[in-house]
Every structure is written in C-alpha cells, then in structure tokens.
C-alpha cells in the first residue's frame, strides 16, 4: 500500500488546492485536495457509488492515508460524498479537464512515453465518442442540454455523449488528454427542437484546436474511425499540423477506396510480409491518391491466422508518406491501436468497476466534473498497475484488475501507515513504474 502512495507527487495536491474554491473558507472543514482525493479513491477502489464513501472508506487508516495524500494535517474523517458533490457543483468544468491534461503532459515532458511514438516521432492520440450518462425518458431540469434519440416505441431517450482524445500506447495505456462534451446548449429565443443537435463530428472541430493549443509543438498523429474520413476533418488536421490515420471503408471515401484497389496490382514492389506468433501479415500501400485536391496515402494489412485460416483485412488512409521502413510501424503501432480507446478505455471505465455510466450526480456541471475526475483516477490507476508489473503480471498475481482494486481498498481500510524509521526509509527510496512493458503483439520478425 505504501508503494501506491509513493507514485503520486505532492504537486498533484498542490494543483488541487490551486483550483477555484467557491466555498466560504470560514465554514469549510475539508481542503479542495482532500475532497478531490476522496473522489479519486472512490473511482480507483471501484466503490461504484458516491454513498459508498461513508459506508466503506471511512476508517481511521483511510483517514491517515487521505491526510497524507492531501496534505491536510487537521483532517479527522473522510469527507461525505455529498460534500464532494457540492464542491463539484460549483467548480468550473474546465479546471478538472485541465488537470487531466496536465497529468499526461507531465509524463510527456519527462519523456516517459518515448517508447510509444510512431515512426517519425508522432504520439498516437485516438479520438472517439461514447455515451456516458443516460437520464431516461422523462424531460426534467436535469435533461436540459441532453441529446435526444427517438426510439422505435415512440419514446424519446435523453442521454449525454462525450468525445475523448486519449493517448494510446502498444503496451495498453489509454490516457485522457482532452475531453469535449457533446450537448445542446440553450440558445436565446429558441427551443431545443428548433436547432440542429450537436454531434461527434462537430465536437471534434471544437476539441482538436484546443488539443493543439495545449500541446503546440507536440508531434501528434490522430487515430480515427471511418466517421472522420472526409475533407473538412482532413483540412482541419492540415491547418492544425496534426497527422492522421483513419479507418477507410468502401462507403466512406469510395473514390479513394476504388482507386487503391485499381492501382495495387500494378505495384508489385510494395507488399511486405511480416511473421509473428501464429499469423502472417501482408502489408501493401499506395502513396499520392488524389482526394479533393489533396494527396492521401492508403495502407492495407491482411492478416492470416495459420492455425484457423481466418483472414482479417484492415485498411487506413493517412497523410504520412508510407515507405518499406515505416509501413509495419504505422500499421501495428498506429492504425491497429485505435481500438484501445474502446477496449482499455471506455469498456474498462463502464464495466471494470469505475461505473462511468452511473449517475454520480444529476446536475449537468456536477456530473461532468465527476466524469473528469474519473479520467484522472483512471490515469493514476494505470500508473499503479504499471508499478505492480503491468496488466499481465497483475492478472497472474491477483486474478484481475478488479481484484487488485479490492486489495487496494482493503489496504486503505485496514493497513496502518508506515511510521518512524520505516517510513523515512521508504520515502527516501526511489520507486519505478515501468510504462513500456512488452506489448501484447510482439515486435515483428521480418
């Protein structure tokens, strides 16, 4: 347990306390850091609901750890979940979002993620949307701004989607770097039915300029699904100096798709064969296909399972020139990593104990801030998993990541903090969290 505390810098608590605090200082018992750490522990320990803080986490040992994490020396008990909710109700939405970005930015600045860069030095950032909160069928003050979906039974479903940009690595890390909530903001003189609903595509046009502003000189390659395979997004990427690798389907850009398969028989020098595990991959590409006055490049990867004979084909369009030296890296560490935002990202947050779709609060700003706090907690939890040996080692030793979270909770509840010389010795000992554990798909043997 003490090793878990050691991977967090005191600067994180300093950042928490530097946030805007709308409360009356004379009437507060808890610092901003102690409240936000309580929310993070709720997510990291997979408590699943705000009320569980009081029923499960409020023990003398947990108070000691929270006092250490937050730096609040006079802390006497774990804050109530409603006290956390009241803070997040008033906290500006952009501040927790900036914290999540800054946390990943510090890893980039310290060059902890160099191993994950594509050929050409690009960091891979996957962009995708998901539903994070469903508020049901009855309109209320809490459904204001929600997107609406007409169901086959005639009912209208009110829901809140979110668009995430997550830095992904071949080792399985999925780190939130930017968030954009897609919603219908109130507009003067118009009802919600009188204007077009917000959508993922429009959200990307707001998110990407902000991403570039936060990382003005960082070489970034976006990993996109076929929804983004169109001229406006390509033009925006060019304007913002962002590279892209986008899934290409026959119906998304038919002219490029058809031209690729028309030209590829005339390029016998392009195929490259890769052997790994029980599969054989044939990688082919064409550079310089015209699309609306710009040149794009198409990369294909056909994988054959030598055990079952199953054949799988992936096809991408990119603005990165493809060569025999970088084609394998663009396919394996680029295009094929996009799915991680759905699996290691959204699936883990929804079904891995974080309960992302749970209504931690109904007021829109509060619910958004809980979501952003979850993103911070998920990043920290992944660092902790790396500290314990990586996901494969965690599964081997503890059975699952959920089991590890349960053991972590028990440590908070029952294990006393180190004292005296043992504490001093631990605090002066360097610890290491390896982020570059061997990837699931091993390096190719050419």
Task: Please tag this protein with its features.
single chain, 446 residues, alpha+beta, 10-stranded mixed β-sheet, 40% helix, globular, disordered N terminus, disordered C terminus
In short, what is this structure?
The protein has 446 residues and is an alpha+beta fold.
> In sequence order, what are the helices and strands, one letter per element?
HHHHHHHEEEEHEHEHEEEEHHHHHH
Give a quick account of the main beta sheet: strands, pairing sense, barrel closure. Answer: 10 strands, mixed
Shape: globular
Which oligomerization state do the chains in this entry correspond to? single chain
Distance between the termini: 43 Å
Helix content: 25-40%
| Total number of beta strands | 10
Class from secondary-structure proportions: alpha+beta
Helix count?
16
Mean pLDDT metric:
88
Taken as a percent bin, the fraction of beta residues is 15-25%
Rg over alpha carbons? 24 Å
Stretches where pLDDT falls below 50 for ≥5 residues?
Answer: 1-9, 439-446
């Amino acid at each position: 347990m003490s090793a878990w505390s050691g991977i967090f810098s005191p600067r994180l608590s300093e950042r928490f306390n530097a946030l805007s605090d709308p409360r009356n200082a004379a009437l507060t018992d808890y610092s901003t850091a102690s409240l936000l750490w309580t929310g993070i522990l709720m997510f990291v320990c997979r408590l699943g609901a705000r009320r569980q803080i009081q029923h499960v986490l409020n023990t003398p040992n947990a108070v000691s750890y929270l006092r250490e994490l937050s730096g609040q020396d006079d802390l006497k008990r774990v804050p109530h979940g409603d006290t956390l909710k009241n803070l997040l109700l008033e906290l500006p939405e952009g501040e927790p979002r900036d914290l999540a970005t800054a946390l990943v930015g510090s890893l980039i600045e310290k060059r902890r993620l160099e191993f994950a860069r594509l050929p050409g030095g690009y960091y891979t950032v996957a962009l995708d949307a998901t539903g994070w909160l469903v508020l049901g069928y009855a309109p209320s003050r809490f459904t204001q701004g929600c997107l609406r979906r007409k169901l086959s039974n005639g009912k209208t479903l009110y829901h809140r989607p979110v668009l995430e940009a997550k830095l992904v690595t071949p080792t399985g890390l999925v780190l939130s770097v930017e968030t954009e909530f897609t919603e219908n903001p109130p507009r003067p003189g118009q009802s919600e039915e009188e204007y077009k609903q917000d959508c993922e595509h429009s959200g990307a046009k707001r998110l990407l300029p902000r991403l570039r502003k936060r990382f003005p000189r960082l070489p970034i390659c976006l990993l996109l699904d076929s929804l983004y395979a169109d001229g406006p997004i390509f033009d925006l990427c060019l304007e913002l100096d962002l590279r892209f690798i986008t899934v290409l389907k026959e119906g998304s850009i038919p002219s490029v798709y058809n031209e690729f398969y028309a030209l590829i028989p005339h390029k016998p020098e392009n195929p490259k064969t890769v052997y790994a595990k029980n599969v054989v991959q044939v990688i082919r590409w064409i550079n310089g296909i015209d699309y609306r006055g710009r040149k794009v490049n198409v990369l294909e990867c056909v994988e054959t399972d030598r055990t079952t004979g199953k054949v799988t084909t992936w096809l991408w369009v990119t603005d990165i020139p493809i060569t025999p030296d970088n084609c394998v890296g663009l396919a394996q560490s680029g295009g094929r990593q996009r799915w991680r935002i759905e699996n290691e990202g959204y699936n883990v947050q929804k079904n891995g104990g974080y309960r992302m779709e749970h209504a931690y609060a109904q007021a829109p700003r509060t619910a958004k801030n809980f979501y952003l706090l979850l993103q911070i907690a998920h990043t920290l939890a992944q660092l902790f998993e790396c500290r314990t040996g990586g996901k494969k080692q965690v599964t081997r030793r503890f059975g699952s990541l959920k089991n590890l979270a349960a053991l972590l909770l028990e440590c908070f509840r029952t294990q006393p903090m180190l004292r005296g010389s043992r504490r001093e010795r631990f605090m002066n000992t360097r610890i290491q969290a390896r982020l570059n554990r061997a990837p699931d798909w091993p390096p190719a043997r050419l």
